[in-house]
């Protein structure tokens, strides 16, 4: 935890302070931002208040009185619920506008982690509880130069592995039969050799399975891949043995031993153009130092797909924040599932991945990653411009 940086951010946001609260690890963000780790034995409520000016304050239960000892600040203790409420009021004396892991109307559920009862308690004390969403972006999503370097290291390896995967599909399909799970195993083994780790996946989807954006083949349900099939590959990984390394996450589509149909070509072109519209919108904003929120980046892609008549088949957000967590805690490119008003910040990473899905037929998603920096934003890997022919 960098106390000086947090207090500076609070002053910039004109907030009196940031109140962290947890019980039974309900708020993993608090543990990450405060640097508490994930191995504390926590069975009682604790509070930690960082004021915009002055010394932080702790409130812990008497039987777990040492849980916040690694953090700076004075400490108070409680046992009864009456004592807790009295001590919370004392903890926040003189402070009114307070950030918490809260989102009005649960609009951004990724940060809406404080229970309604605790918010009611604090409002009853005359406190104005506001969302910590923008603060979380600053202290969770902003990456160091070393972390950004790990993203590019993963990118080079994954781009090469994916290219080999397409060739392997072509070889196996030409000389006989293969299936989705066999290609998953091929990609997985290649990632192991390259010193990468991943969660679930990768996703290899043939035919109608490509219309399920979160399909995951197994040995039991794997579909054959034959000549003439349509195939989607979604692959993601990060460097092993580096807890703060940053993920690389991409999706490509192609056809096996044939040319795309006219409809496949139209849908791919629409998705590609939607992806590129978001890329250009983000790049223009950063080049001109114009703030851009996640919902605005989503709108750029969604408008292209709507104008093409496919709006009803674009059923997810345009992109997600990426960090040491695959679906990270910064701004998502989203004006569908949520109205994400958080800003895309310099030194953050995020995906751009519009898609169009026809259940029972096929689906196309084109996913790239971007790194935003002060004054510019860049795509970090290879960019698919046409359907792969294998």
What does this structure look like?
The protein folds into two domains: 3-140, Creatine Amidinohydrolase, Chain A, domain 1 (3-Layer(aba) Sandwich), CATH 3.40.350.10; 143-389, Creatine Amidinohydrolase. It contains nine helices and 19 strands. The protein has helices at 3-12, 28-34, 81-91, 116-124, 133-141, 145-175, 180-193, 262-287, 294-307, and strands at residues 17-22, 46-51, 57-61, 74-78, 97-100, 128-131, 178-179, 196-197, 203-206, 224-225, 230-239, 248-255, 321-322, 348-352, 355-358, 362-365, 368-373, 376-379, 388-389. The chain has a six-stranded mixed beta sheet with strand order 4-3-2-1-5-6, with helices on both faces. Strands 8, 9, 11, 12 and 19 form a five-stranded mixed beta sheet that branches.
The fold-level CATH name of the largest domain is Creatine Amidinohydrolase
Unreliable segments of 5+ consecutive residues: none
Question: Considering the protein shown, what is the CATH homologous superfamily of the largest domain?
Answer: Creatinase/methionine aminopeptidase superfamily
Question: How many extended strands?
Answer: 19
Task: Indicate the radius of gyration in whole angstroms.
Answer: 24 Å
Regarding quaternary structure, how should these chains be classified? Answer: single chain
Strand content: 15-25%
Q: Name the helix and strand elements from N-terminus to C-terminus, one letter apiece.
A: HEHEEEHEHEHHEHEEEEEHHEEEEEEE
**How many domains, as an integer?**
2
Tell me, briefly, the overall form. elongated
């Amino acid at each position: 935890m960098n106390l000086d940086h947090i207090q500076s951010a609070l002053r910039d946001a004109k907030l009196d302070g940031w109140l962290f609260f947890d019980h039974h690890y309900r708020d993993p963000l608090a543990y990450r931002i405060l640097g508490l780790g994930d191995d504390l034995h926590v069975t009682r409520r604790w509070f930690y208040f960082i004021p915009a000016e002055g010394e932080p304050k702790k409130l812990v239960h008497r039987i777990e009185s040492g849980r916040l000892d690694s953090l700076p600040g004075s400490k108070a203790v409680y046992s009864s619920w009456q004592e807790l409420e009295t001590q919370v009021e004392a903890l926040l004396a003189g402070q009114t506008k307070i950030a918490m892991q809260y989102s009005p109307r649960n609009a951004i559920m990724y940060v809406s982690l404080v229970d309604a009862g605790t918010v009611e308690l604090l409002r009853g004390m005359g406190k104005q509880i506001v969302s910590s969403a923008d603060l979380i972006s600053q202290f969770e999503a902003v990456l160091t130069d070393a972390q950004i370097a790990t993203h590019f290291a993963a990118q080079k390896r994954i781009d090469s592995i994916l290219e080999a995967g397409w060739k392997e599909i072509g070889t196996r399909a030409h000389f006989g039969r293969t299936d989705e799970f066999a290609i998953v195993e091929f990609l997985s083994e290649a990632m192991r050799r390259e010193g990468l780790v991943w969660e679930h996946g990768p996703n290899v989807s043939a035919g109608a399975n490509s219309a399920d954006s979160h399909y995951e083949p197994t040995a039991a349900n794997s579909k054959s891949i034959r000549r003439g099939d349509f195939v989607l590959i979604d692959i993601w990984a990060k460097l092993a043995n580096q807890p703060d390394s940053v993920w690389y996450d991409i999706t490509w589509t192609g056809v096996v031993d044939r040319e795309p149909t006219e409809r496949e070509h139209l849908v791919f072109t629409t998705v590609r153009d939607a992806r590129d519209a978001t890329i250009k919108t983000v790049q223009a904003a950063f080049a001109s130092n114009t703030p851009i929120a996640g919902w605005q980046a989503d709108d750029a892609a969604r408008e292209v797909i709507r104008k093409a008549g496919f709006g009803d088949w674009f059923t997810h957000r345009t992109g997600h924040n990426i960090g040491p967590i695959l679906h990270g805690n910064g701004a998502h490119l989203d004006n569908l599932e949520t109205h994400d008003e958080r800003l895309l910040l310099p030194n953050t990473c995020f995906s751009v991945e519009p898609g169009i899905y026809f259940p029972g037929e096929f689906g196309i998603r084109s996913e790239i990653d971007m790194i935003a920096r002060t004054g510019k934003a860049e795509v970090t890997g290879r960019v698919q411009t046409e359907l792969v022919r294998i």
